[in-house]
């Protein structure tokens, strides 16, 4: 076996390692899931929901060990607790949705002669390949609906954040029925590639480049791939916006989790009439944010989880500076205790020749560009290979008009990242290079892990050869 070293984001030291799974061990795990799936899929949806409720409850029993492991993986404490709480809420919400969404459906055609029964047939084994920025949530955000749909699931979190897996094993041991249909393993991208070949469908969250490789591998085997990829989410601040509320929301979304989120606001377009006031507000807010390097439980943001990401942020800032950008706050990668840190960084005099405005940065950086009219703002926001989501601030009639013109799947009006707070029916897809494979939210987030089968019944006279003449 190959041993994989893992660095601590706060110290920079290699203080953990795991063994890369062998092909034989992966095959054995997938075979076990495949054998158990037949019983699992035949359980009533409500009974599968009860098993997932046991899982949500078991998270409480293992709260502290799980939070400790996540905090070492990620270098932050408060968001580690939040991940656990959020996963419980997501799980219970999906349980309440599943019974109606996945129920079999009967209908009769007009005239009454033909009826049909429609059922949802789950993929036997789904591989979930998750990233490092929210290790727990993104390991289970899609696994939970897949399980409710009747699939079994094998999860491979990022090799950057594998420590929490051991605690999840203990949680699954507390829920025997769930342990029969879930595997979670540490592994590198090589393990992920093997799982794509062994599973029946794959769910991947990560970068565009990695997503392309996942999609190509799955396509070569004619297997469905559900891809949630990178973002470069814009925020537009219109003349009718409440500047105080807009600045607070945008700064929060730009720096939460040290900017390491697909939904982060990574570029801002503000109308020229508000530019000076808005930029001053953003700088003031940035100056109030504290780092948690002295005490992991005290402070607003943590270190870069991945040292590689710190280098990307440093490169984007250097490129912007060379092309004339002005850094008003932050701007320098700092080293504390071996980790990489960055104070919230407000940047002006930016344009779309800069990587900072066009490539995913995944850092607490807020580049701000001024626009003169609404059409220009729309064109700038749409001038991107990404199309995950966007925010617009202004009067309701203004934000709706602008939002309908934006080329993104989720448009948040007068706030940020609202999809999780919307009605259960709300769905959004990833536009452009930000993903493929339907909505992970709303009913589609459950149904996409199934294939639709219809049994069509003739209640009158069937077709006859005599009809040919």
Would you write up a description of this structure?
Helix content is 40%, strand content 22%. It has 469 residues and is of the alpha/beta class. It folds into 2 domains: 3-229 and 434-455, Aldehyde Dehydrogenase, Chain A, domain 1; 233-421, Aldehyde Dehydrogenase, Chain A, domain 2 (3-Layer(aba) Sandwich). A 7-stranded mixed sheet has the order 12-15-16-11-10-18-19, with helices on both faces. Strands 7-6-5-8-9-21 form a 6-stranded mixed sheet. Strands 3-4-22 form a 3-stranded antiparallel sheet, with no helix packed on it. β1 and β2 (14-19) form a beta hairpin. It is globular.
Q: How can the largest sheet be summarized?
A: 7 strands, mixed
* Count of DSSP strands: 22
Report the total helices. 17
Rg from Cα: 24 Å
What fraction of the residues are assigned to beta strands by DSSP? 15-25%
Strand order of the largest sheet: 12-15-16-11-10-18-19
State the secondary-structure class. alpha/beta
Please tell me the overall pLDDT.
Answer: 97
Total domain count: 2
* Residue windows where pLDDT falls under 50 for at least 5 positions: none
CATH class categorisation of the largest domain? Alpha Beta
